[in-house]
Write a structure and sequence with these properties.
This protein is an alpha/beta fold. The protein is built from four helices and 14 strands. The radius of gyration is 19 Å and the shape is elongated.
Length: 200
């Protein structure tokens, strides 16, 4: 559950901006991998690579790390995502996954579409996130690790609201509000790895 601990939850401080959240070793490793790939394929020369690696190990926040790869990959492929733009999908599909910051108030719209919010590696901006949804003839799926409490007060019309996440009284809360019409919201934990089958 380390990915769901926020500075506000740890030290009682006010809510930080997404880019001001403190970076961890795993975040630095993600960025280091991208920098190494950029050196290998010539997007960075050796001097540029050394400069960015030095900055990498001095960086304290996610925003500082994100700046090191901003010109190397498109936004959807960045190793860290600190943007808080809403997810919107119309007659298609969209997915938010990887290491991304979930703001305190976030919105997702799915119209005749499939939207997946994969929060297994996400960092919550606060201990209570409100997800405002508009789901019409569509499916919105949340994948969250155990230890998170899901609440679904969203209004529904001829729709399904399914919460398969085991309740946690002490974990952070994701509250899903808004409207669901002729669609489905599904919150579920990650699939557990299958046990290997050994034949004797």
């Amino acid at each position: 559950m380390d990915s769901f601990q926020t500075p506000a939850m740890r030290n009682g401080a006010g809510e930080p901006r997404p880019g001001d959240l403190r970076a961890g070793n795993a975040d630095r490793e993600r960025v280091a991998t991208v920098l190494g790939d950029a050196l290998a394929d010539g997007r960075l020369n050796h001097e540029e690579h050394e400069e960015r690696v030095a900055a990498l190990y001095h960086a304290r926040t996610l925003g500082e790390l994100a700046a090191l790869t901003a010109d190397l990959l498109p936004p959807e492929a960045q190793p860290l995502r600190t943007d808080v733009r809403p997810v919107m999908a119309f007659f298609g599909s969209d997915e938010r996954s990887g290491r991304w910051v979930v703001p305190t108030r976030f919105s997702a719209t799915a119209i005749c579409a499939n939207v997946t919010l994969d929060m297994r590696e996400a960092l919550l901006q606060s201990g209570h996130v409100t997800l405002q949804v508009t789901v019409v003839a569509a499916t919105l799926t949340l994948i969250v690790p155990e230890g998170v409490r899901i609440e679904m007060p969203a209004s529904s019309f001829m729709s399904g609201k399914k919460n398969q996440v085991p309740p946690s009284p002490d974990g952070p809360v994701i509250e899903i509000t808004g409207t669901v019409a002729l669609g489905t919201i599904l919150a579920k934990p990650p699939k557990r790895p299958r046990r290997p089958w050994f034949r004797r």
